[in-house]
Structure formats: structure tokens, C-alpha cells
Amino acid sequence: MAEVVEEEMELAASASTAAAAMEEEKFVVPFRHRRKFSMYLVQLRIGGGPPDEARSRYVLFDTGDDLSWTQPDVRAREAWCQYSHSYPTPDNNLCNFDKRYGDGSRLSGYLGSDVFRFGNGIAGDDGGYNFEQDIVFGCAQEEHTTAVREYSSGILGLGMGTFSFVAQAGVDKFSYCALSPERRDLRDQWRKTTSYLRFGSHAVTSGKIVPFKQDGAHFIISLKSVTYQRGSRLDQNQPVPIFTRQEAAEFLPILVDSGSTLVYLPALIFYPLLKRIDDELTLTRVYDPTNNPGINCYDGEMSDVEGVSVTLGFQGGAELELFGDTLFYEGYAGDYICLGISIDERKSVLGMIAQRNTNVGYDLANMEISFNREAGQFCTGVNLRQLNTFANRETFDLFIFNHGSTINTTNNKKYIQIRRPPSDDYKH
Predict the structure, then answer these.
(1) How far is Cα of residue 302 from the mean position of the Cα atoms in its chain?
(2) Shared domain check, 182 and 111
(3) Which end of the chain has fewer CB within 10 Å, C or N?
(4) Which GO molecular function, any one, fits this protein according to its record (predicted)?
């Protein structure tokens, strides 16, 4: 509990910075990473009236779910239920909802509507709101899910469907870029880093394009190849194909899910890939202290696996290379690392570890998802308006995240210093 209070104070301290960076943006929503459960959370206020009457809460933004829901300490207006809306329930009661997830968790409750608000600052400061609109959502009366942990009290549903937040907000594009969490030796420095959800005209949908299909609330793309490679960026070994399919009918459907942490693949891909990694790593396997049999961990550090990469190839020719923080993650209970890929025979999933440091754009009108690791400014929120705030300083530090490289594995950042020119000739 002390850790939660400590982080709440730090989030509040960083609110003014986030607000200044985004003051001219509309419908750009900050989100933060919770290290313990590797969750990316949005701060949301529900309710009309002054900010002190709209309680703040943190919710997991989830592209695998079409219904936003939270724990029922909000006064949702139940009058919404009088209208002709419905959500699947066993008894067809329009006011009730009942959801079950693939991991076996479930929740139920009633539907209501109230004003959703996202502030300009991550801690809901007094800088105003950049979104205020009535949204239909679920008030969970009975909840047994992994979505509610410490900070998180529910879900912001970004999946496909009538009840999706995206549909209710009336936008046909959105994007996000989730930064990697801090490394152990830089935890204090990275803790205040903020990422952003962008909706509507502010969404970034350029990059490597992959067509998607709708399956209920889910965004499904087609996986056509998985390739393993070992070696430094300048001296790599020949890639080893793990899974290759040429015909569209043989492609593997995979769910793009911001609500999941890991990549999940079937046994025919996972076990050959795991064997290749185990054979080439000189690290001792250790048990995951969370007792999850599907998690594969090693006694080592991230620098020990910097040469390992896995490339996912998708329909349309786009590829997503996973390495470093997008392939492995640091364990929560000690000095060990874990593979960010696991096995699931029921469905394949592209979770958030693989999506880190990549701008992921959703174009709903054209049914396309884009992956762009070159759009680093959209991961950090740095833009020209931010740089203008430094115009009167003699110098300022600009840090560049090493998203596309593993060269600087000690601190994962490169620092440069920019000095303001003595003349006004360069202002433009």
C-alpha cells in the first residue's frame, strides 16, 4: 500500500508537466505504466459537476474488450436503461451485463451512463478536461478478473462494437505508443514517463500497414511467419524460420490486444521457438515466483539477451521485430528475466510487451492497423509546442529513447544537449 501512495504522489507531481505538453491538444489522453503487473493505465473521472465531485480512477485501456466498466462506487444514471439498448445477458435484462474472458475470469453488474472525463494532466489537475461526454458503461457488482489490481479499477473498452468507447466517442481512428518500463537501475528516472492515447484527427496511423478483420469485439490480423535470429545488430546469424505459411487460408489469426501482457502462440510455434532460445542462451532456467506454468524465466539480466530477436510477419508484408524490452521483461520478485511469449492453444494474442515503443494505429474505416517504430515523438509526447516552451532557456537536455537499437544497453538512453543560438536568426 505504501508503494501505491508513493506513486500517487509522484503522479501528481508530474501532472503539471503533462498538462503543459498537451495544453493545445484535444482528445489526447495520457496513460502510465504500472510495473508490478505490467499494466498501462488511463486516469478517468466519471461524473458531471466540478472536478472534486467526479471521482478519479485508473482503468486499463483494452482493445480486446468493447465495454468499459468499473467498480460501482459511481452514481451512474440508470435511466439510460429505459432506452432500446442491450448487452448480451442470460435473462436479456437490458440493465444487466455478464461478461466472461478467455482466461476464465468473469464479471456482472448493471449498465448505466455518466460523463467520462480525461484531464490534460495525468493526475487530474485543474488544467481542465480535453474530453467530456456521456458514455454507457458497466458498473460491476460481482467481479473476479485480473483487470482489477492495485491502481486499476476496471477497463476502458476500445474494441469493436456499439458499446465501445471509440464508437460512443464518434471517432474512426485512434493510436497509442506505450513506452517500455524503467530498467531496474533506472527505475526512479523513468517512473514519471508518460505515454499518450490519441483519438480522431490526432491519431497516428502511418507506418507498416496490416489489414484486420473484426471478430466480435476483437481486432484480428493474420500471422504468416515467425523467425528467430541471434547476434548483434551488426553481426547477426542467419534467421531461422520457426513458422512459415504462403497461402492466406493457412495464416494464423492473432488478436491485437492492449489488455494482455504477453504474446500467446500455439504449441506448433511456441515450443520450437522456446527450444531454440533455450539451446542458445547460456542462462539457467528459474521458476516464475507467480507460479504461472506458462511463464519461462531465466537467471540473468536484460543485457544477457540483447542479441536475441523474433520477427513476426503479417499479411500484407509488414513485419514486427521483437527484441530487448519487446521480447523479454524483468521479473517482479527478483533479479531474473522472463520471455514475453507464452503458449495458448485457444487463441493467439499480440499483447503489450510486443507493442512497446511502437506507435500502433487503428484505422476503423479502412480496417487497417499500422505499426510504426519511427514515430518516437508520439511515444513521448515531444512536439514543437513542447520545444517552444524551452525557447528562453540557455540549454536543455533532450533524451532519445533507443527504441530501434540495443547499442546502449547500460542505460537505454542517449543524451544530447542543445544550446540556444546567440542570435534570433534561428527562431523559426
Answers:
(1) 21
(2) yes
(3) C
(4) aspartic-type endopeptidase activity
